[in-house]
Amino acid sequence: MNTSGILRIENLKKYYQVTAGLFSKKVGDVRAVDDVSLHIKQGEVLGLVGESGCGKSTLGKTIMRLEEPTSGEIYFDGTDVIKMGKQELRRLRGKIQIVFQDPDSSLDPRMTVGDCIDEALIVHDIKNPDTRNAKVAELLEKVGLEAGFAQRYPHEFSGGQRQRIGIARALAMDPKLVIADEPVSALDVSVQAQVLNLMMDIKEKDGLAYLFISHDLSVVKYISDRVAIMYLGKIVELAGKHEFFNNPLHPYTEALLSAIVSLRPDGKEKIILKGDVPSPLNPPSGCRFHTRCHKVMPVCSQKEPEFREITKDHYTACHLY
Ligand code: ADP
Ligand code: MG
């Protein structure tokens, strides 16, 4: 199998067992990630979009084995992640960094900003304190903050500044891939663009790759090279950004795009999705989207559509094609 690219995953599944009763009898599986295959090239941003609960965060965590995959394959820089032992996993978790929506989850409130970043540097075995202080200052400046902020505590900063500190901490590890899980969703709109610009700058300078997770297509449009759409644990469409926004194939993608005035294709009406996202514990038969699809056909509830290449580098799973 082809293991090229900084990250490649094949048929990845993460099911959570659901149990009930006194003897914890298994009643089913939450299919949080259900047969996902994708790759990310070095220096590339893959945007991953989907409604809340569709499995985006689980996918991010499973890639680093913060959650153990149920089945499937993961290759990072050509190396099999599933086979990694404890030591190799620790190294992997330096090379892949997650930036969360809530920066506070990675910043200890009792530590100064400098110590929060320094803690990450220790992994690099830099013994000389002057060298480490210089590196902390360099990282703070890199994310647009003053070096003098190192002496202050996280709570003294705004949400946007704390997210910058979180990014500086992630960069201290010299990662090759950053999994950004809704990194700007908790920030004021006015601050979102600044943080996104920062992430873009860093990407250009350091040749970083991102898995950029968001529920917001307009954010993803800004930052991504390619876009993947996830629905109930599955990728339903994947294409280069330009192709994706100009020629969406999947009815779910059409509906998501039509909901945003600035992204709606010319002359198209807004498509209102029927109902709520069904439970991943008991997903609909056939195509999982058929219960909400405005183009549903009889075959859709019977047979699961195959995820396949329709035009060059444009993939979708839909019986229309
Ligand atoms: P998203 O990030 O897209 O909002 P998540 O990956 O957080 O979605 O969750 C996907 C599904 O998996 C949800 O139905 C969620 O309830 C379920 N899930 C997530 N983590 C666990 C867990 N530790 N145990 C059981 N179910 C979980
Ligand atoms: Mg999430």
Tell me, rounded to a whole number, the average pLDDT.
Answer: 91
Q: At the fourth CATH level, what is the homologous superfamily of the largest domain? A: P-loop containing nucleotide triphosphate hydrolases
Percent of residues in helices comes to 25-40%
**Element order, helices and strands?**
EEEHEEHEHHHEHEHEEHHEE
**Low-confidence region ranges:** none
Strand order of the largest sheet: 6-7-8-3-9-10-12-11
Q: What is the level 1 CATH name of the largest domain?
A: Alpha Beta
Strand portion: 15-25%
Strand pairing plus helix content: what structural class?
Answer: alpha/beta
Taken together, the total number of domains comes to 2
**What is the CATH topology of the largest domain?**
Rossmann fold
SSE layout and pairing:
Blueprint: E1 7-20, E2 25-40, E3 45-49, H1 56-63, E4 71-76, E5 79-80, H2 86-95, E6 96-99, H3 113-122, H4 129-142, H5 159-172, E7 177-181, H6 189-206, E8 209-214, H7 217-223, E9 226-231, E10 234-240, H8 241-246, H9 251-258, E11 308-311, E12 314-316
Parallel strand pairs: 3-8, 3-9, 6-7, 7-8
Antiparallel strand pairs: 1-2, 1-4, 4-5, 9-10, 10-12, 11-12
Helix pairs in contact: 3-4, 3-5, 4-5, 5-6
The protein binds adenosine-5'-diphosphate and magnesium ion.
Adenosine-5'-diphosphate binds next to strand 2 and helix 1.
